[in-house]
Amino acid sequence: MTVTDHSQQLITVAAQAAADKLAHNIIAFDVSEVLSITDAFLIASANNDRQVRSIAEEIEDQLREQLDIKPVRREGEREGRWILLDYLDIVVHVQHSEERSFYSLDRLWKDCPELPLPEDALASRNRPDAHTDQAGNAVAPADDFGKPEEQF
Q: Please, are residues 137 and 107 in contact by the beta-carbon 8 Å criterion?
C-alpha cells in the first residue's frame, strides 16, 4: 500500500504552511507500509518554542481553510518543544531543533520512502538556521567552536 492521494494533498498543504512560517528541515515519509494507523509523517523544526507553536498553528489553519479538516488530536502545545497534530491520514510533528536531534525521527523512518514536497519546503533544508549533517539529518546546533552543543 502507498500513501493515498488525499494524504499526499494533506502533506503538501501542511508542508507549504510550515515553509511559509520558516520551518526548517521539512521532510515527509510514506509510513503506510509499516504502520496501519496512518499513511504519512511530516516532520518540521524550528529553533525556538514560539516558532514551533507558530508553525503548528499555521499548518492547522491552512488545512482547515483549504481542505476543511481539523486534527483529531493535538499534543505538546503547552511546552512548545514538540507539537503533534494527528489528522488520522497523516501525523505532523513540529519539533524544536534540540528535540529533533535527540529523538531522531528522521533516522527512525529513513527506510520509508520520502514523499514529494513543494519547492519552498524542499528549500527549507538549505536554510542557514537548519542544522543538518551531510546526509540531511537534523543535528544539534554547533557551539561557537564548531562542536555540537550538549544535550540536557
A: yes
